């Protein structure tokens, strides 16, 4: 089968590989129908994910059809259409039992697919702990509608859940990339009084205006003043930082009102500085990143009910045979790209 493979720093290649087989009684083999390219794939390509193993098939956001299951798998069966979770988790350890599946203590837990073990930008993928990692796609929900359930939408849903948003709140979301938009969709379900999106990219701002006209938008340079003018208590009640650069890390606390919640969703390349003397008395509550992707069943239901629609994020689609072109487009942010889908 064809599999897009991480060879060495800077080099991915579409290669012929053997079809995966069941290695454990809790595994499933999934025939991938649709995969997507994520910015974490680019982090692997650029060598900034040290635990990524050269030779692995990349891709950790995909949907497909169950082909084969191990003897201990009970929740899914061959023929089921499923989403695949970015995280591998056992479902049994202390952290899994408390919903902190990102911190699963199993030696195979955490971000494994497309990083430490073969992922899904391929025709088939082996999914460990299939009862945890696979969720059935409801009838009436298409592959394209379900594509982001296991990764970027899971992140947006988790970030919203931990941010304790109330109806009288002004919520600031910094960054309108794919994860920022998924976060926006989940924040909208909480019906806060105002949502402000801060983004510097013109085409992303245009995407927000087109699809979510009720959302206020602002550039990073004007963000602080704008939030002050458009909030009731001298700043945002909740800030979600999804952009992940030093300037947006600073913007997050600067735009927050006293006693606000600041949720850090982004992954940074380097340590960030909290200027505590300047922040003294602001009494902020910080929540830091690392998605607990354990609400996929709930988000699939919200999609089935028409309450979440991530399909407009798929701006480009390529067959697996031309995946390199999809990467080139995504990496260079050409042609207004938000997300690229790969038909496997
Ligand atoms: Zn990802
Ligand atoms: Zn666990």
Notes on the structure:
By secondary structure, the protein is an alpha/beta fold. It has two domains: 2-151 and 292-343, Medium-chain alcohol dehydrogenases, catalytic domain (Quinone Oxidoreductase, Chain A, domain 1), CATH 3.90.180; 154-287, NAD(P)-binding Rossmann-like Domain (Rossmann fold). The protein contains twelve helices and 17 strands. The protein has helices at residues 39-45, 94-97, 130-133, 143-146, 152-162, 178-189, 202-211, 220-229, 246-255, 276-279, 296-304, 323-331, and strands at 2-8, 11-16, 28-36, 62-69, 81-84, 87-88, 110-111, 124-127, 134-136, 170-174, 194-198, 216-218, 236-241, 256-264, 285-287, 314-319, 339-343. Strands 3, 4, 5, 8, 9, 16 and 17 form a seven-stranded mixed sheet that branches. Helix 5 crosses helix 6 and helix 8 packs parallel to helix 9 (246-255). Bound molecules: zinc ion (2 copies). One zinc ion is lined by residues 89-90, 92-93, 95-96, 104-106, 109. Pfam families: ADH_N. One of its GO terms (molecular function) is zinc ion binding. Its cofactor is Zn(2+). This is GroES-like protein.
């Amino acid at each position: 089968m064809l599999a897009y493979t991480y060879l060495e720093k800077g080099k991915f290649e579409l290669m012929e590989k053997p079809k995966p087989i069941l290695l454990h009684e809790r595994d499933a083999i999934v025939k991938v129908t649709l995969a997507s390219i994520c910015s974490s794939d680019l982090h692997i390509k650029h060598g900034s994910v040290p635990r990524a193993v050269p030779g692995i098939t990349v891709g950790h956001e995909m949907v497909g059809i169950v082909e084969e299951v191990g003897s201990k798998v009970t929740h899914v069966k061959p023929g089921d259409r499923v989403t695949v979770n970015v995280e591998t988790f056992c479902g049994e350890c202390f952290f899994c039992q408390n919903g902190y599946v990102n911190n699963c203590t199993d030696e195979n837990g955490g971000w494994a697919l497309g990083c430490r073990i073969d992922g899904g930008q391929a025709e088939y993928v082996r999914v460990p702990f299939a009862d945890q990692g696979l969720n059935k796609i409801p009838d009436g929900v298409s592959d394209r509608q379900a594509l982001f359930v296991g990764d970027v939408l899971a992140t947006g849903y988790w970030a919203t859940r931990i941010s304790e948003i109330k109806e009288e709140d002004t919520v600031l979301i910094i960054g309108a990339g794919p994860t920022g938009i998924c976060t926006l969709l989940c924040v909208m379900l909480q019906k806060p009084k105002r949502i402000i999106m801060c983004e510097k990219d013109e085409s992303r701002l245009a995407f927000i205006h087109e699809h979510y006209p009720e959302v206020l938008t602002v550039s990073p340079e004007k963000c602080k003043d704008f939030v002050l003018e458009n909030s009731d208590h001298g700043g945002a009640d909740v800030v979600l930082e999804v952009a992940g650069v030093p300037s947006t890390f600073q913007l997050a606390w600067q735009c927050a009102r006293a006693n606000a919640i600041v949720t850090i969703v982004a992954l940074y390349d380097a340590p960030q500085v909290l200027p505590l003397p300047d922040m003294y008395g602001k009494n902020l509550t910080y929540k830091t990143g690392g998605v607990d992707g354990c609400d996929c069943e709930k988000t699939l239901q919200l999609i089935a009910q028409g309450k979440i629609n991530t399909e407009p994020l798929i701006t480009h689609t390529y067959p697996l045979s031309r995946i390199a072109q999809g990467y080139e487009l995504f990496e260079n942010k050409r042609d207004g790209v938000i997300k690229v889908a790969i038909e496997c």
